[in-house]
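Box S2. Input/output pair 1.
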Amino acid sequence: MADLDPPGAGLGQPAGSDTGTDNTRAVVGVAPSGTGTAPSPGAAAEGSPGAGDGTRGVVPAPGPRRERRAGRASGHGLFRRRRPIREPGKPSRAGRNLPAAIGVGAGLLIPVLVGLLFFPIVFVGIVTLFGAVGVWEICRALELRRIHVPLVPTLAGALVLPFSAYFGGAEGLAVAAVFSVLGLFLWRSLDPAPEAGKSLMAGAFTVLWVPFMLSFAMLLMRAEGGFLVIATLLLLVVANDTFGYLIGAFFGKHAMAPKISPKKSWEGFGGSIGGAFVVGGLCAVFLLGQPLWIGLVLAVAIVASATAGDLAESMIKRELGVKDMSTILPGHGGVMDRLDSIVFASPMAYLLSATFVPGMM
């Protein structure tokens, strides 16, 4: 690097000249070796390459240029470093790949709505499949902490509970839940493993967390007009996620639970409430044929329960040391990362429908 020509090389100076190659001599005004005399104090200003007196001018020290370069590199002064433009496909301010998240979300919502409105048994099958995948993701994540959940009976319970609720009602759901937990104990008794108590507790927790709570939506399917309540529930969950994401990404400053979910803010929660008010009011009047206040109450309750479900899953993921339950859904993470809100919102929708809509349940 020391062999590069100095600034000004080639501009009236012979190639290979040592003039200006020693910055120390240029600064203090010492004559280059071989000249024999030192220049006068005004030589640096008056002399120039090729001057008539035959002397070569001293090349000025490149201090200002170096200072400008340093300022440009450090980002201070007039030359500040611009923020790099986010490349396509990179996560957005809220940590998601937004185009992929929208595409995957639409791809999941369309078949669910089609089954809900036209083919109820298909809807039950889709919900059961999602619940089973969510259970598999949880069992896989628990393995990171050496908690070995009995996978076969846990998945069996995930497959049985929604259909039991749809065909047998609340009584069928209760019986299926009891037998699912008993099946876990029986399986672990026949196939003992270290720390069996921890394994059984984790298995029972997984069954009651995902398939059992999702099955309350199947109870709504049995009611007259219950599919409209489920459609309202899904639209409110979408409004909660969408408006919470938009408001939180641009205006979020006060973290709701910084130790659990640092990106979830109170501003985003307010945006979720506002968006859900609009969606809930419209759905109550035009879909459910109920007064406006029922839609507002439903909106607040669904947003609160959906947020609680989101925070609950975030707490479990932080405890397990994982960011997402899996990477099955681009832009979302795992299936459980989408079900976390619906899992808590389904029992709330069932409870409110049974309480405020006489004769529905």
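Box S3. Input/output pair 2.
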Amino acid sequence: MSRLSPLALYALAALTACGAPEAKTPILTPTANPNAGQATQTPVPAVPAAATAPSPTVVANAQALGLPAPSLAPLVKRLSPAVVSIDVEQSPESVGGGMFGRSIPPGHPALQGQGSGFVISADGAILTNHHVVKDAASVSVSFAGGEKFPAKVVGWDERTDVALLDIEGDAHPFLEFADSDKLEVGDWVVAIGNPYGLGHTVTAGIVSGKGRSLGAGPYDDFLQTDAAINPGNSGGPLFDLEGRVVGVNTAILNSANGIGFAIPSNMVSDMLGQLQTEGRVARGWMGVSLGDAEDTHGAFVAEVFADTPAGKAGLKVGDLVTQLNGVEVLNSRSLVLAVGQLPPGEVVRLSVIRDGQPKELSVTLAERPPEPSLARVPGGR
């Protein structure tokens, strides 16, 4: 009789423990569910691994293949107390659109929506997606243990689909961020959320891709994962196997199986200070239209708009921007992302190639205008 390989043994153990996976039917939409009726304390406490440890043989087989231990239960028990379900009510008086995609006629009962989120500080700061709470008349959050709190929307950034909430209390379990730049394609990740209002649900997979652009806005830089993400998962955390947040789950792809997207944790953590103090995010802006070089790194200046920082600094059409503050510019998208992470008023150094000659320019960034204003400035960056 033939012997099963370690991989086959691992798969058999997983199927025996969990059952065969159900088929999934994803959609391209933010993953809110529209069809439902700085801290001083220690982050979420660890659960002793011995309580749910798999057998040494199974662990050894998994480790030999570079796989995580077959049971994620200890990790899930440690993280779940800081993950919340979010219930949203939109009143008939609210402006139409938002997460529900339509206006509500006068006299119509309030509509309900659901999403997910996670606590990032002991005093009750919670992160979720902007589309989960947009135009909400009331927001409440529920913990896995049954506790429920009314929540206040403190701030949001529509361009990256992030919102910050606040609840009362000063001793909530909370989660920490990882450095998402250190993630590699193939790394294991775990998602916890509230799909379809079912309550805390755990899925696992790998990082399938990085730096994905979905055409949602100028700051698209999504992580792609095959961990199952469904409507209601929006705003929930994506973890590494050390239990640190590497992303905020936000969208899934139409007519695809196992393609979900998360906002990288580094992008989120960079804007937290402004969300907490200002309730919004102000981003740097040069005022140019950019294009990509065909055979070299850098970003070509296709147009310089009048009365903008770029024009005042002497940037010209045809310049090839090769560095920003000494860091190489790979393409036009990387330059837009880098400038957008800097505050208005900051002076940046651009290294450019003009007519074959290197040149250095200093640009004092302005604040990026609202999107309707930019629509009147073709390709405004």
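Caption for Box S3: The domain at 284-374 is CATH 2.30.42.10 (Pdz3 Domain). The chain has two domains: 1-280, 284-374.
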